[in-house]
From TrEMBL:
SMART domains: PKS_ER (SM00829)
Keyword field: NADP, Oxidoreductase
Upper lineage: Bacteria, Pseudomonadati, Pseudomonadota, Alphaproteobacteria, Hyphomicrobiales
Keyword ATP-binding included in the entry's annotation: no
GO molecular function (one): NADPH binding
Keyword Metal-binding: no
Name this protein carries in UniProt: Quinone oxidoreductase
Domain Enoyl reductase (ER): 11-327
Gene3D superfamilies according to UniProt: Medium-chain alcohol dehydrogenases, catalytic domain (3.90.180.10), NAD(P)-binding Rossmann-like Domain (3.40.50.720)
SUPFAM superfamilies: GroES-like, NAD(P)-binding Rossmann-fold domains
Organism: Bradyrhizobium vignae
CDD domains given in the database record: MDR2 (cd08268)
C-alpha cells in the first residue's frame, strides 16, 4: 500500500485527492521507484481538466516526472538494482504510468541514473523541460552557433531550458514574455535579449535584434495572433516549432510569409523523442553532459509538500512561476 494522488472527475485543482492504494509489483521490463520528488507540468493540469491529448480513466492517477530510489525491478531488467538513485524520462502515458505517488512504476528504458551531484529536487526537474527543448531545437531544427532563436513563454521551465540549450550550442536566445516584470530574471537566466509582447511591437523589436539575418528558429508554446509577426521576421528557410497552444485566440495561418520565405511550421510533441530509442539516447547523452558540466542547471520556481498538491496545482495554473514547480515526498 502507498499514497497516491488521484482524481475521480475532471475539474480544478480541488478534485485532486491523496488516497491509499494497492501497488502491484513491477511487471516484466518495469522498474518501481520510491518517489522522493515530483516535477509538475502543464500537461497534468490539462489531463485533470479533461483537455489533454490523453483521456483519464477514473479514478485516474497523473504525473510525468519523478526522482527517487529503486524499490524493485521486474523480470529481465538489468542495469538497475534496489537502492539505485534515479530519475524518470516522461512516459508516453501518464494514465498508464502515473508519477504522483509514493511508489511509482515505469518502463525500464525510461529510468536514468542521473549525475550523482543532483539532489532529488533538482533531478525531478530535469527531463520534461530539457527533452522538450532539445528535441525541438537540436534534433528537429538543427540549431547552430550564432543562429537566432525566439523563445515564447520563456519563463516556463521549457522556455528556460531552451535558453540554456541555445547558449550551450552558441546560438542567440531571444526570450519573449508578456510583460517586463521578468526581464531581469530572464537576462540573468541567459537570454541575450528579452521582448515584452504586451509592451512592445514584437515584430519591430525582433527585427531590430535580428536585422537582415532574421530569426531562423521560433520555439513557440502560445500560438494565436503572434504567428503573423513572428513569421514576418523569420529568415528564409526558417522553422517555427509549435509545442503548446496557450493562446485562447484563433491561430491564423501566415500564408504570405510561409510562401515568400519557404518557412516550415511544425507541430511537435516530446513523445517523438521518447518513443525513438536512438533519438532518446542522443538526447539523454546531451542532457547528462550538460548537467555534468553545469551548462544546464534546472531553475526551481517553488517547492511544495506532497500533502499540498492542490495548492501546487493552483500555483501551476497561476502562470506566476519562473522555472519548475517541484513537490517533495
Amino acid at each position: 500500500m502507498a499514497r497516491a494522488v488521484r482524481f475521480h472527475q475532471h475539474g480544478g485543482p480541488e478534485v485532486l485527492r491523496i488516497e491509499t492504494v494497492d501497488v502491484p509489483s513491477p511487471a516484466t521490463s518495469e522498474v518501481q521507484i520510491r518517489v522522493r520528488a515530483l516535477g509538475l507540468n502543464r500537461a497534468e493540469a490539462l489531463l485533470r481538466r479533461g483537455t489533454y491529448i490523453e483521456s483519464a480513466t477514473f479514478p485516474s492517477g497523473l504525473g510525468l516526472e519523478a526522482a527517487g530510489v529503486v524499490e524493485a525491478v521486474g523480470d529481465d531488467v538489468t542495469g538497475f538494482v534496489p537502492g539505485d538513485v534515479v530519475s524518470i524520462v516522461p512516459p508516453l502515458s501518464m494514465v498508464r504510468w502515473p508519477a504522483y505517488a509514493e511508489l511509482a512504476t515505469f518502463p525500464a528504458e525510461l529510468i536514468v541514473k542521473h549525475p550523482p551531484e543532483l539532489g532529488f529536487e533538482t533531478a525531478a526537474a530535469v527531463w520534461m523541460q530539457y527533452l522538450t527543448a532539445y528535441g525541438a531545437l537540436v534534433d528537429i531544427a538543427g540549431l547552430g552557433p550564432r543562429d537566432i532563436v525566439a523563445i515564447t513563454a520563456a519563463s516556463s521551465s521549457v522556455g528556460l531550458a531552451a535558453i540554456q540549450i541555445a547558449n550551450r550550442i552558441g546560438a542567440v536566445p531571444v526570450a519573449l514574455t508578456r510583460t517586463s516584470i521578468k526581464r531581469r530574471a530572464l537576462l540573468d537566466a541567459g537570454a541575450a535579449h528579452v521582448v515584452a509582447s504586451d509592451e512592445e511591437l514584437v515584430g519591430a523589436r525582433l527585427l531590430e535584434i535580428a536585422g537582415s539575418k532574421g530569426v531562423r528558429v521560433v520555439f513557440d508554446a502560445v500560438g494565436g495572433p503572434a504567428f503573423e509577426p513572428l513569421t514576418a521576421v523569420m529568415s528564409p528557410g526558417g522553422i517555427l516549432i509549435e509545442y503548446g497552444g496557450l493562446s485562447p485566440a484563433p491561430t491564423p495561418f501566415p500564408l504570405s510569409n510561409v510562401l515568400g520565405k519557404s518557412l516550415t511550421l511544425r507541430g511537435y510533441l516530446v513523445h517523438e523523442i521518447v518513443r525513438d530509442p536512438a533519438r532518446l539516447a542522443k538526447a539523454k547523452a546531451f542532457i547528462v553532459d550538460g548537467l555534468s558540466d553545469r551548462t544546464l542547471k534546472p531553475i526551481i520556481a517553488r517547492t511544495f509538500r506532497f500533502e499540498d498538491i492542490v495548492e501546487a496545482h493552483r500555483f501551476l495554473e497561476s502562470n506566476n512561476q519562473f522555472g519548475k514547480i517541484v513537490v517533495m515526498i
